[in-house]
Amino acid sequence: MTFATDVLRQSVVVFSRNYLPMTRINIKRAIALLVDGKAEPLDITTEDGWIVRSPSVAIFVPPQIRLTFNSNERIWKVPPVNRREVLRRDNHSCQYCGSTKRLTLDHVIPKAQGGSHTWENVVAACEKCNSAKGDRTPTQAGMPLQSKPRAPMHPTVAFAEAFWSEHQIEEEVIGNR
């Protein structure tokens, strides 16, 4: 038996008019979009979803909905390369040893060797690793990076990437049964 509070804790994936997965919203917001005609059910899988009842109406809320209008998304700009944004991107850990203590910024290719202050060349590094690396590249210092530095991507694109990779894994698991 499903309780009303359990249903209200569910979330729905919202697709753009062009079928790009954009975000995950709570079921109340999904109901409002469906009732207002701003969204329509998107049946990727059958029989999934929830029936929500009021005294006068029952509505089926699927796990995915598609917007029926072009959303005016705010223009998103790549944030500047600064300490706060680099630490956020690198999950507040040193990209050489994984430490979370006494973090600094390090230029992968040192400025002394012509390196620039860009998203692809700046990483978080603990003071110990930054000192040990000095004015050398990670290869010269024998200190490989844990992940390749990249510029942050648009939140919608990041959500879409995570959504499709999650569903690809589910399909592989189902296919191996």
Give an overview in words.
The protein has 177 residues and is of the alpha+beta class. The chain is built from 6 helices and 8 strands. The protein has helices at 4-8, 27-35, 83-89, 127-133, 138-141, 155-175; strands at 11-15, 21-26, 39-41, 50-53, 58-61, 64-67, 103-107, 122-126. A 4-stranded mixed β-sheet has the order 2-1-6-3. Strands 4-5 form a two-stranded antiparallel sheet. It has a two-stranded antiparallel ribbon with strand order 7-8. A hairpin with a 5-residue loop joins β1 and β2. The chain is elongated and about 70 Å long. The relative contact order is 0.13.
- What is the terminal separation in angstroms? 28 Å
Report the sheet with the most strands, covering strand number, pairing sense and barrel closure: 4 strands, mixed
Unreliable stretches (pLDDT < 50, length at least 5) are none
> Which strand order does the major sheet show?
2-1-6-3
SSE pattern, N- to C-terminal: HEEHEEEEHEEHHH
> Count the helices. How many?
6
Radius of gyration: 23 Å
Name the structural class: alpha+beta
List keywords for this structure.
two-stranded antiparallel sheet; 4-stranded mixed sheet; alpha+beta; 177 residues; 30% helix
